[in-house]
Amino acid sequence: MVTKSHTLSNGSGNNRIVLVGVAAPEPYTPGASVKYNGTTMIAGPSATQSENNSYAQIFYLLDAALPAAGGSYSVTVTFSSSSFAGDGAFDVAEFQRTCSKSARS
Predict the structure, then answer these.
(1) All domains of the chain in start order, with CATH
(2) Sign of the CA dihedral 83, 49, 43, 100?
């Protein structure tokens, strides 16, 4: 489990999304979980590369699930369990005004 602090720049109502990108080599396998300020993030696309036994995955939360106010919040990544030591990394990005109008057909 790895935790770091993220500064949420914008308050609610700005159509925000927070993305967390996770990458890890062997012995970790897909199955990481991510929490933002204690809220479990939604697992998005993932990719596994068998040649070098690594994987990457994106997790996200939309505006309504994020804290209402900007500020410093914890991001915790729990990598899949393994009996071997390994390295894993993640990064956090915040975007705003990402879906201000709905598409109509």
Answers:
(1) 2-95 (2.60.120.1200)
(2) positive
Count of beta carbons in the 10 Å neighbourhood of residue 7: 10
20-73 pLDDT, tens digit per residue, is 999 887 766 667 889 999 999 999 998 888 777 788 999 999 999 999 999 999
β-strand partners of 46: 57
Name the residue with tokens 């057909």.
105
How far does CA 26 lie from the centroid of its chain?
20
- Cβ proximity of 24 and 87 under 8 Å: yes
Using DSSP's 3-state secondary structure scheme, residue 65 falls into helix
